[in-house]
Amino acid sequence: MDNKLMLMIPGPTPVPEQVLLAMAKHPIGHRSGEFSKIMAEVTENLKWLHQTQNDVLMLTVSGTGAMEAGIINFLSPGDRVLVGSNGKFGERWVEVCEAYSLNVDPVTAEWGKPLDPEQFREKLEADTEKQIKAVIITHSETSTGVINDLETINRHVKAHGEALIIVDAVTSLGAANVPIDDWGLDVVGSGSQKGYMIPPGLGFVAVSPKAWEAYEKAKLPKYYLDLKPYRKNAAKNTTPFTPPVNLIIGLQAALQMMKAEGLESIFARHLRQMNATREAMKALGLPLFAPDGAGSPAITAVAPTTVDAEQVRSVMKKRFDIVLAGGQDHLKGKIFRIGHLGFVSDRDILTAVGSLEATLIELGHQGFTSGAGVAAAAKVIAKS
Questions:
Q1: 7 part of a folded domain
Q2: Are 342 and 220 in the same domain?
Q3: Does the annotation place 337 within a ligand binding site?
Q4: Domain total of the chain
Q5: Is the pTM of this model over 0.90?
Q6: Cα–Cα distance for residue pair 365/166, rounded to 1 Å
Q7: Which H or E run contains 136?
Q8: Are 22 and 47 found together in one domain?
Q9: Are 192 and 247 in the same domain?
């Protein structure tokens, strides 16, 4: 029998039936009044999700496209930027900045460790001539399951006064609290296939008034990713280019579901499932890659020492049709990652942990009592 496929990866994430049914409708014209009404609702609900009264713009791109747009619209060649790099995606933003001839000053940490906010403070305080134009941070580092201390780093950026803060919230938006207006975040990028609970294809960029001021001086080349036409068209509930109509209709349904659940409940669910997963791994004798206190609510990275990470993923897929993510770059074969992001329920966590226990038994992993992982996860869920 073909089993139901379970995506337990950080993207694409599972899509609710309501969203799938919404996307299955016949397309409508993207210049029609009907579509404009959908755009108006979606824009309003995006601002609710982002906790902002400022612009939240939709682009037909991945999360990487959203972040590239968030960088190139507000900077000029030669601008000095601090870029946090403690994983695959931090490294990617360094590469994007270098591709656009920015003066990149990386702030690094070992993969699996959070960035040190003090390193940012020291560099920002030393910049008495205000040459630093932006600080670029990955909030939830998907490649390692680490969440960085965005709130503290942002405070140091605000004390600097000149620099923008540009945030990769691709796997934290919709999973963790990112109060854009309360924290005064300038540019926040994210992607649809994560906490939004819809397939890949849409990127989102939230932009502050301070960032729009920087836009007027920015000189980096841009055309399709020029955010000004998106802002102008969004004010009229339309788009500058042809959008993925059915994907936006799916987004409408997903945002309605999220509003019904409520922000606090969404954040609590992700935190509960992260804690349940982490406690289960400890009970199974599997080392966690991210230290306690720095785990991401979107994904948990596991670094097994007695079994091969790729064998774990293979058995989970072949035996149980559960897809786990692997390690990237030098971590390939050394870790596997369990996604608990978006449309994931407590039942999914228990199912994945139980299947992982069976996989470990098959692979000869010892050092745990049968049922210990499920019991540990269930204890966290019951108390939350």
A1: no
A2: no
A3: yes
A4: 2
A5: yes
A6: 43
A7: strand 132-138
A8: yes
A9: yes
